Amino acid sequence: MCIIARFQVLCRYKSLATKFPSFPMAPKSRPSSDIASFKEMFKNKKNIAVLTGAGVSAESGIPTFRGAGGFWRKYQAQHLATPEAFSRSPSLVWEFYHYRRELVLTKKPNKAHEALAKCQKILQGNGQKMTIVTQNIDGFHQQAGAQDVIELHGSLFQTRCTKCQDVTVNRNSPICEALRGKGQPDADADTSNIPLHDLPHCCKANCNGLLRPHVVWFGEGLDPDVLRAAEQAFEECDLCLVIGTSSVVYPAAMFAPMVAERGVPVAEFNIETTPSTNVFQFHFQGPSATTVPEALGV
Ligand SMILES: NC(=O)c1ccc[n+]([C@@H]2O[C@H](COP(=O)([O-])OP(=O)(O)OC[C@H]3O[C@@H](n4cnc5c(N)ncnc54)[C@H](O)[C@@H]3O)[C@@H](O)[C@H]2O)c1
Ligand SMILES: [Zn+2]
């Protein structure tokens, strides 16, 4: 329930559920894992929408939230990514995000990000289109060369002022002196309790508001413009790829099943099955840094 409650925008989807009365859909037959027939079908597609989640970055060394990597110290990652956690302890939440920023800065995109970026470029050259919509906040798709990536949940490398709402790109390492050497993930690491005035603050004249990561936290709504752009991509596509996502975080979890409901092929790439696997036409089981380049042939 708390996951569903994550996005107030979910109510918008009630209208979609009315439009697609059989949602959530009854399982169809088992999806195919035949790469050759996927490739044959892919050739004729003009408009491909891709949805990625934490799994696509797992082989870059960025832990997913579900599974062993989902803990930071004694906290479950989802419990720190909330506005309540930030108002209770901005220091603790900044330590967590500082850890995640520094981790991403030491890692790089993997073969799945690279294959998608390369494929997008090739398709563009042929008058076709690939739109990448990601739940990730690591920026790896863009770093691999992908264009016009729709970041549903914001970015680790943007901050938002809690006072004037200014959004700024910030890749400083560390983001402020007080966080240098902080954020160790070990369960027994000490909490730093950094005084508020030493945490990142807004540089705009006469503001000096406390900054927060510009990411969508559990319990917060998505930016309506970003959501609209994502919806459009999935409404217009003639093929959908779902890569490394557990299909349980809404509203992203509804995009691919809604595409399948239109009769448009959806191919899932994951190391395991998900609650939506059986409504998709293809399921390629395995690590996405192997399966995605193979399926896209790049
Ligand atoms: N890299 C990141 O930016 C990052 C990392 C962790 C969490 N998150 C956030 O956590 C939320 C969780 O949603 P989610 O569904 O994206 O992630 P999730 O953690 O819920 O699920 C990850 C999925 O990836 C699959 N997976 C793991 N390793 C894989 C691999 N090598 N190849 C293919 N699939 C693999 C898992 O089976 C699982 O289904 C999102 O909102 C996202 O913003 C982001
Ligand atoms: Zn400000």
Automatic annotation (TrEMBL):
Record's GO cellular component terms: mitochondrion; nucleus
Enzyme Commission no: 2.3.1.-
Cofactors demanded by this protein: Zn(2+)
Residues reported in the UniProt entry to bind Zn(2+): C161, C164, C202, C207
Catalytically driven reaction(s): N(6)-succinyl-L-lysyl-[protein] + NAD(+) + H2O = 2''-O-succinyl-ADP-D-ribose + nicotinamide + L-lysyl-[protein]; N(6)-malonyl-L-lysyl-[protein] + NAD(+) + H2O = 2''-O-malonyl-ADP-D-ribose + nicotinamide + L-lysyl-[protein]; N(6)-glutaryl-L-lysyl-[protein] + NAD(+) + H2O = 2''-O-glutaryl-ADP-D-ribose + nicotinamide + L-lysyl-[protein]
Residues the record marks as active site: H153
GO MF terms, alphabetically ordered: histone deacetylase activity, NAD-dependent; NAD+ binding; protein-malonyllysine demalonylase activity; protein-succinyllysine desuccinylase activity; zinc ion binding
Domain Deacetylase sirtuin-type: 28-298
Protein residues bound to substrate: Y97, R100
Compartment annotation: Mitochondrion
Database matches in Pfam families: SIR2 (PF02146)
Enzyme class at the top of the EC tree: transferase
Keyword Cell inner membrane assigned: no
Coiled-coil positions: none
Binding residues annotated for NAD(+), in chain numbering: 53-72, 135-138, 244-246, 270-272, 288
UniProt cofactor note: Binds 1 zinc ion per subunit.
Keywords: Metal-binding, Mitochondrion, NAD, Transferase, Zinc
Domain comment quoted from the record: In contrast to class I sirtuins, class III sirtuins have only weak deacetylase activity. Difference in substrate specificity is probably due to a larger hydrophobic pocket with 2 residues (Tyr-97 and Arg-100) that bind to malonylated and succinylated substrates and define the specificity.
Family membership: Belongs to the sirtuin family. Class III subfamily.
Function per UniProt: NAD-dependent lysine demalonylase, desuccinylase and deglutarylase that specifically removes malonyl, succinyl and glutaryl groups on target proteins. Has weak NAD-dependent protein deacetylase activity; however this activity may not be physiologically relevant in vivo.
Official protein name in the record: NAD-dependent protein deacylase
